[in-house]
Amino acid sequence: MFSTPRHQGPPTDHFDGGRFRNAGGGSPTAWRDFLRWRLTADPGPWRGWTEAPPGPPPPRSVGPGALRATFVNHATVLLQMDGLNVLTDPIWSDRCSPLSFVGPRRRRPPGIRFEDLPPIDVVLISHNHYDHLDLPTLRLLADRDHPQILAGLGNREFLESEGIGKSRDLDWWIEVDVAPGIRVQSVPAQHFSGRGLCDRDGSLWMGFVIRGSSGSVYFAGDTAFGPHFEEIRRRCGPLRLALLPIGAFQPEWFMSRYHMSPEQALDAHRSLGAGSSMAVHFGTFRLADDGEELPARRIREALAAHPEPKPRFWVPEFGEGRDILPDSATL
User: Fold this and answer.
1) Does residue 266 sit in helix, strand or coil?
2) pLDDT (tens digit, 9 = 90+) per residue, 73-116?
3) At how many degrees (to 10) do helices 228-236 and 262-272 cross?
4) Which of 80, 161, 241, 284 could form a disulfide with 74 if both were Cys (CB 3.0 to 4.6 A apart)?
């Protein structure tokens, strides 16, 4: 039920002809461990609802050489660079679920109202989990702006079957031009995919690097910590900004194969050699055992204990937009 089409194609080093796998290893799927977690879960505290006013409408665009990032919620960030507006893993729905009445529900409103978004040129989809590939939001964007949609192998057929066109699916390390002077490259992540009982690892998960005159921006999507960060640094060069997930990391004995802890996100910042990093994937949906405020608190504590010079890594407020100043990407 709710399963999506599987990618059809020749085997590669991360696809066996039926399922994708992480670089250097097999699929992280482990049902026994999942059941053990669910039977022993010890979730931290979350508020039922946090009412908050939306942030101010972002600018319609930014000029050549400028870079602005606005945190909406979860893994949804508006990136504005060189006149282009890019949206990552957009979700404005009340639940990240196949059903409107059950499943993880949001615990606060999006930081930016959908109607305040500028026209979106490109949408990046890191993988097909419900909190990252949200069909109602994608339909709104497709109807309003007709953006280019980039996702991993196996997702285009699904999006087209849902009436969402103008999409392209990519393998790892593929580069595409999205506007004059701006390229997007898909990069590996360490995660998994699936929306139902029969499509586990049938489509590819990934991150993205966007390059333009404003520099390079990395969006990690969902990922565990691993050697792919060093490889991204080696292949993609200096990064002006990295968007790194910090939430859904407990219990760490189980979640560490899918998600980074806040401290590992700081390690990823160093491995990438990013000039600045912004935390994402926290404080919106309860998806694991970590409490609502724990990811942000843990990374702030790690930063406070870090010797000088401290990394440029910040935890944004919901709806906060920030101009990313140029800086050397070498720490």
Assistant:
1) helix
2) 999 999 999 999 999 999 999 999 998 889 999 999 999 999 99
3) 30
4) 284
